[in-house]
Write a structure and sequence with these properties.
Largest sheet: 4 strands, antiparallel
Radius of gyration: 20 Å
Shape: globular
């Protein structure tokens, strides 16, 4: 198997790291991979904030759903959708016409650039022998994240990733099963998949059926959908989009 394909197939989240720093040469390779990632119009509509201050790392660990391993991770990067520098540049030009402000489409495009860059950094880290974990909770508590990171208008945190050398337990831990390609890839047009088909897909993925599958589904719904962090994430995301539209 091609080595890049093997890395992509084997990659899993790592939440326990050996307490050793990542050599700066390797950090720079991870960052360069992010910068070299595909980007809309070669605009690189993202900024990655490398968090090295222990107090800021500890604050992020609390604001991101109280996950202590964030505070001790050797490398912490917060990837932000960023249209600020381009907008300030455009505003400085004598265009002879009214300059529009960044809007919803610009935010979505910047989010795409940001996530592509983050993924490139994660793949690079894997290639160098490091583990990583995406922290989606950076979308929560937008007021707190803005204060911790000093974020101005048109700069919003989209994802965070932490990196380090995985412990042996994390190396040995089995990667969670994924859906089959046929479950997620449609041809030419969208094919609706109802609740029963989802049950079948998840039953095959999780190796469960009958009452055991129903219990798993109920627990998963409670843990990932009908939960406080999911509600806060939606509230915070809506506020970030509103602020983006208002230039805040």
């Amino acid at each position: 198997m091609n080595e890049t394909i093997r890395l992509l197939m084997a990659r899993k989240s790592v939440r326990q790291f050996e307490q050793e720093p990542i050599p700066e040469e390797d950090v720079q390779q991870i960052l360069e991979a992010a910068v070299q990632a595909p980007t809309a119009g070669n605009m690189s509509l993202f900024t990655a904030i490398r968090v090295t201050d222990p107090q800021k790392k500890a604050a992020l660990a609390i604001s991101c759903d109280n996950q202590p391993f964030i505070a001790t991770a050797p490398l912490v990067l917060v990837f932000c959708a960023d249209y600020r520098r381009w907008f300030e540049l455009f505003a400085s030009l004598n265009t002879g016409e009214e300059l529009r402000r960044p809007a919803q489409g610009d935010f979505m495009l910047a989010c795409a650039d940001t996530l592509i860059a983050a993924h490139a950094s994660v793949v690079a880290a894997d290639a160098l022998g490091y583990g990583s974990c995406y922290i989606g909770d950076i979308i929560e508590n937008c007021d707190i994240q803005r204060e911790i990171l000093g974020l101005p208008a048109y700069v919003k945190p989209v994802c965070m990733a932490v990196y380090g050398r995985p412990t042996q337990q994390q190396k040995d831990r089995k990667k969670p099963a994924r859906f089959a390609v046929s479950d997620l890839v449609h041809e030419n047009t969208y094919r609706p998949q109802g609740a029963q088909e989802m049950r079948e897909m998840l039953g095959a993925r999780q190796g469960l059926e009958g009452d055991a599958l129903e219990r798993w589904l109920l627990a998963f719904c409670k843990r990932k959908w009908n939960c406080d962090f999911s509600r806060e994430m939606s509230r915070s995301a809506a506020q970030m989009i509103d602020e983006w539209m208002q230039g805040k």
